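Retro notes, item 3 of 5
We never archived the inputs for the zinc ion complex last cycle. Fixing that now. Sequence and ligand:
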Amino acid sequence: MTTHADDDGLTFSHFEAFRLINFTFIKACETIATPGLNPRHQAEKLMQYHGDLLAAYGPGVPLSFGEFRERLRGPIEDLLPPWLDRSDFGNLSFPVVDAEGCVTADAFDLQWEVSQLHRILKRLKRTSGMQFTEAQLQDEIDQDQMYEILKGRGDTQYVKDRSTLVECPAGTAAELNERSLPLNAIAYYEAIPYHATYLTWWFPCTVCKWPMKVSKRMSAGREYYRVACLYARHAEIGASFMFRPTSGDAPQLHADSPDTPAPREAALALGAVGAVPEARPVEGHLALKRGVWRYTCVPGLHELRLHSVLRERLAANHADVDAAVQLWPMSDAYDHRIEIQGTDGRTYLFTVDVKDYTHGRVLAQSLHRNEGDKGGAEWLVIPDHRADQISLLTVTCDKYRMKVATMTDFAQMVCRKAGVEWA
Ligand SMILES: [Zn+2]
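Structure as it came back at the time:
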């Protein structure tokens, strides 16, 4: 293994401390925001998180319990100790919880993305400095175990089951049973989250179908509600609605005005412009855990779309399109394997990993520590709406002979090589 000049104990402990602080912060915020938690229980939990935080700070960094509680309403950067180097994390000035006490999308993604990086570092160091409790690791364990459960039924079934999970992030127990997911996978569904309910109702995102977040607003002295997907891009392209309060009936949603994609990006753009979801009863419905939704369903929709668009377009000049365009091949070593006949008579092979990270710097660090893609993919493809990460990721990918492209640029390049028109 190559050693990196900057891969010293200090760097490791920075990521480790950051991960622990971020996790503790999120859990403490959730504790404050949980409705119906009794005050004594809440105080006990907060004291425990305060202790965890002081342990991560190390000696000489004071933080009283009162200060700790106050800072929980602010951005994560206010809770970092002075010795911690922030340069690898990018912007940390966003709040961790919003006005409704729901963990923000930026904070949720940062926690997961830093956890992935931390795992890589830990594998490289083969040491364990700070001790993480089982609860602290639960989100990542969930995700890993779920893939193992799905893999247990063979490669073909794996693609089927994973697609089902992506396409079906919420439903009634009967609906989920009909999709014949493995029983253990159904355990990753839970009650509709509190942040997504209005009275006894919830609303599926028009892009991903996961329950949208509901928040109360005021305008000109009148109360109204906004309903929007927690994944910001879905809200921008149409999954954002308003409604007036009702006296118990299902509310009628009205659409905000959405962004429309550029014509060139339309083929791979997700979303159903103009669709308005109907309210569904909370009772009897289940939704995937937030981490599984965010890191399986959200990128999975892009992966499925890229797969189906390439299949469709390459079918005309590839007799065996099943072999040419493969999704999650070889027990999911990477996301796509595309082998095409070029117009020049040569065969071209593309191995692709799709990465949908909110924090591009953390993704760059993860690639750097893995010395490229862990599964050996040669292409890193990111959703079109993350095009601003390209220049940063190109610098890292160049070092490990990987290439990086947005989804549309990549698909267009593959089609052009195969002699297929894109637009
Ligand atoms: Zn959504």
